[in-house]
Amino acid sequence: MQRVTVDLPARPYDIWIAPGLLDRLEEFLAPLAPTSVHIVTSAVVAPLYLGRARRACERVARAADCTIADGETAKSLDTVEQVIDSLVRSHADRRSVVLALGGGVVGDIAGLAAALFMRGLRLVQVPTTLLAQVDSAVGGKTGVNHPSGKNLVGAFHQPSVVVSDTSLLRSLPPRELSAGLAEVLKHGLIADSDYFERTARELPALLGFDDEALARAIARSCQIKAAIVGRDERESGERALLNLGHTFGHAIEALTGFARWLHGEAVACGLCLAADLSARLGLIAPGEVGRVADAVVQARLPSRIEGLSKSAALDMMRGDKKAYAGRIRFVVLERIGRALQMEAPDALVDATLLAAGFR
Fold this sequence. Notes:
By secondary structure, this protein is α/β, with parallel strands linked by helices. It is about 45% helix and about 20% strand. The chain contains 14 helices and eleven strands. It has helices at about 25-30, 45-60, 75-90, 105-115, 130-135, 175-190, 195-200, 205, 210-230, 245-255, 265-280, 285-300, 310-320, 345-355, and strands at about 1-5, 15-20, 35-40, 60-70, 95-100, 120-125, 140-145, 150-155, 160-165, 330-335, 340-345. A seven-stranded mixed beta sheet has the order 1-2-9-6-5-3-4, with helices on both faces. Strands 7-8 form a two-stranded antiparallel sheet. β10 (about 330-335) and β11 form a beta hairpin. The protein is globular and about 60 Å long. The chain starts with a strand and ends with a helix.
């Protein structure tokens, strides 16, 4: 079993990574001494894992559960209210624990509900997708979407522990696994060129659900994100670099109604656009753009999107939470393995969007 610590000044916490941890949840819950455990899961995950999770929780405390709709369209305040209603009905109190059992959407919804209910309940993340295990379950960001943009309503609420059972990834459709690889590639691009190259080499093994390759990727991605979050919990500086590809990606998601692509697919396309913009800014060579695009395509992810409105994308990005006074700040590559945040001339952004298939 591997452990990665998120070393926050106020309260550090651990990420545990190994197969078979779902049936050992009581080991991670017992130190929290909860009066009750409230499992939030999705309609897809519940038939697969809810029974096992609930039995493990009941070895520690009374358990209850709430099943929400699956997918990005469920990331709304209405769904958060559904979870809060469930907490009320099942008599949660301030010593209760909310346990998120699912992918990124479940983690966001459960995390935001835990942050709001009684001004904050403890949260345990049990991510079931690769994207959640390498990224979204770590770092304490919670949020829901608004018609004007992605994750515009949210809060920082750190988990007490993250339990990543790698054996759960075998139930993922191949498309979901590929979506998680977008965040793996992102971590290498912003912080570790050797990791990016290793990931590119190991893509056949990763796509083949190789246990050792997946465990290495999960651990290294968590180490990179944990180090950044430990230095900048509230995204006042360095943590913004974790948004590489997300400014473009969030615009793509919003313009397609959060329904056409998975989050990781939009991020993958965003990575290619961010690399292209980096080259137009004179930061990286065109050949580096090709290396990024090749890795994205080999991961069975999209590198471009046809037919979306360029002007609508620009409007969406100006409303992004990273923008200031309507000025878009992009995370771009100084080189593979190092990123920075900066504004870019509109003409260069236009050229990048047009090259990616926007009209």
